[in-house]
From TrEMBL:
It comes from the Bacteria. Keywords: FAD, Flavoprotein, Membrane, NAD, NADP, Signal, Transmembrane, Transmembrane helix. This is NAD(P)/FAD-dependent oxidoreductase. The keyword Signal applies. Pfam families: NAD_binding_8 (PF13450). InterPro entries: FAD/NAD-bd_sf, Retinol_saturase. The chain crosses the membrane at residues 7-28, 474-494.
Length: 507
């Protein structure tokens, strides 16, 4: 492929921005079209009471010197401008079970193992075996380790993809509380018993063990820096450009994309950062092979979430440099996702890092699972900064009910927190759907299933000759997963060995 050609990227999530930047750096004319006012997808933030809240990314792993995301961000020339705070080395995550058991995840495998052994002194041998397995599984994914090839890899050992996380850990220890603590950060990947593969746990947990950080005043700085670098390399990111259709030539290639405001953009290639299901819907099912469209549309997605954002009274809550995963049920990974008397059965709580104060937390975010079906009555409504729609009073009342339930729960684990809250705000699965364009507000797109590995694998190439996919559904989700997915997408256009060798220069 020749540089200088026009590439349109649909969606400015990190997958789209990283793909766009890599190709802009290699001479392609890149335009990223974003439907919202704010770029970044899950990197978006919002401000209330002069405080910044992250909407999707609360902390990121793999950022210690020499680690995978560190090296990729250095290659992209954004790392040195990021303002970050490293989480507690001995407890970047704290898992608190319903039966009172509490244990921490530490940065570095030494800390990680030692913290688990402190909580489970009778399972030292089991913990060593589990740590060994986490590290071993990661070696089978070359690109994850910034390599194109490896003597051992998952392509030649597909049996690794067919191992369940819960099931594998149960073969390594008979202490169910230990299993629950290791899988306690499951909301990072929407872990499900009997569904989630062990390799997903290994890749994601390993990245956080290799350097966990929060972003000062929000993760949107990643998107802003990527946009700046795209511009420096001759590309541009355009906001409020919702793609609504496409024109095709006689060979089946996309020749232009049209937006809701009437603007039209000619292109040589298109990269969609949208969920594959949304991409098919946007461009027209008849342009894809029936078997492919049927498979993608039938794939289950990960669960949605309800978020509550708490603005705190000044200097009342000491800043906590750990994330808390609190469970109010013994059925971890089998929690009730529908609204019920027992909801919520899990809360994830994180404090925002602020430039204004280091000693106190200014704001806190709390996330809970909640099924999109609870909001079916209002699914036709849309409300964003660009589309200022309205929601019914019943919707707002249900939101308030959910907020109250969550506040009751976190008061159990953070006694006295209610009296320190200045105001609260919330978002629902519909909010997430409207801003991030994922089906049913799914947090992480397509659900990986160790029993159906081939069905859930999505290729960057499509049956439309000049359409490619990127984003969290290509490899795995999260900042790291979507970034690696963007690398894979870019390899369709530029020399993969050249890019990897450049990334490997940053130790």
């Amino acid at each position: 492929m020749n540089s200088g050609q026009k590439i349109i990227v649909i969606g400015s999530g990190i997958g789209g921005l990283v793909s766009g930047l890599i190709l802009a750096k290699h001479g392609y004319h890149v335009r990223v079209l974003e439907k919202n006012h704010q770029i970044g997808g899950s990197l978006q933030v919002f401000s209330r009471d002069k405080k910044v809240f992250d909407t999707g990314v609360h902390y990121v792993g793999g950022l210690d010197k020499g680690e995978n995301l560190y090296r990729i961000f250095k290659y992209l020339e954004i790392y040195d401008d990021l303002e970050m705070k490293r989480l507690d080395e001995k407890a970047f995550d704290i898992v608190r079970l319903a039966n009172g058991v509490t244990a921490s995840h530490g940065i570095g495998y030494g800390n990680f193992a030692n913290q688990l052994k402190a909580a489970f002194p009778d399972n030292s041998v089991d913990i060593d075996k589990i740590v060994e397995q986490l590290q071993l599984y990661c070696t089978y994914f070359p690109l994850y380790n910034i390599e194109l090839e490896s003597e051992i890899n998952y392509v030649e050992h597909t049996e690794l993809l067919e191992v369940g996380a819960w099931e594998h850990l149960a073969s390594l220890t008979d202490n169910e509380d230990l299993i629950k603590v290791i899988l306690g950060s499951g909301p990072l990947y929407a872990g499900l018993k009997g569904v989630t593969p062990f390799y997903v746990v290994a890749l994601i947990l390993n990245s956080f063990i290799k350097g966990s950080y929060r972003f000062v005043n929000g993760g949107s700085q990643i998107a802003k820096l990527l946009m700046k670098k795209i511009a420096e390399n001759g590309g541009e990111v355009l906001r409020r450009k919702e793609v609504v259709g496409a024109s095709f030539d006689e060979s089946g290639k996309i020749r232009s994309l049209s937006c809701s405001d009437g603007s039209v953009f000619e292109c040589d290639f298109v990269i969609s950062n949208l969920h594959p299901k949304e991409t098919i819907k946007l461009l027209g099912r008849h342009h894809f092979k029936a078997a492919y469209a049927n498979r993608v549309n039938a794939l289950p997605n990960t669960i949605a979430s309800f978020m509550i954002y708490l603005s705190l009274h000044e200097n009342t809550v000491p800043y906590f440099n750990s994330n808390y995963y609190d469970y109010y049920t013994d059925n971890i990974w089998e929690e009730e996702f529908r609204f019920s008397d027992a909801w919520p059965q899990m809360t994830f709580t994180s404090a925002q890092v602020s430039k204004n104060t280091k000693e106190y937390a200014e704001s806190i975010s709390v996330m809970c699972y909640l099924d999109f079906n609870e909001f079916r009555a209002w699914e036709t409504s849309v409300r964003t900064v660009v589309k200022e729609g309205t929601r019914e009073e019943a919707y707002e009342a249900f939101k308030k009910m959910c907020e109250e339930r969550i506040l009751n729960r976190i008061e159990e684990r953070f006694p006295g927190i209610r009296s320190k809250i200045r105001s609260s705000y919330s978002s629902t699965p519909i909010t997430y759907r409207d801003y991030v364009s994922t089906p049913d507000g799914s947090m992480y797109g397509i659900q990986k299933d160790f029993k159906h590995t081939h069905k859930t694998q999505i290729n960057t190439k499509t049956h439309i000759p000049n359409l490619f996919l990127t984003g969290q559904n290509i490899i795995f989700h999260g900042i790291l997963g979507a970034t690696i997915g963007a690398l894979v997408t870019s390899f369709n256009f530029v020399n993969n060995k050249q890019i990897i060798e450049k990334i490997k220069m940053y130790d």
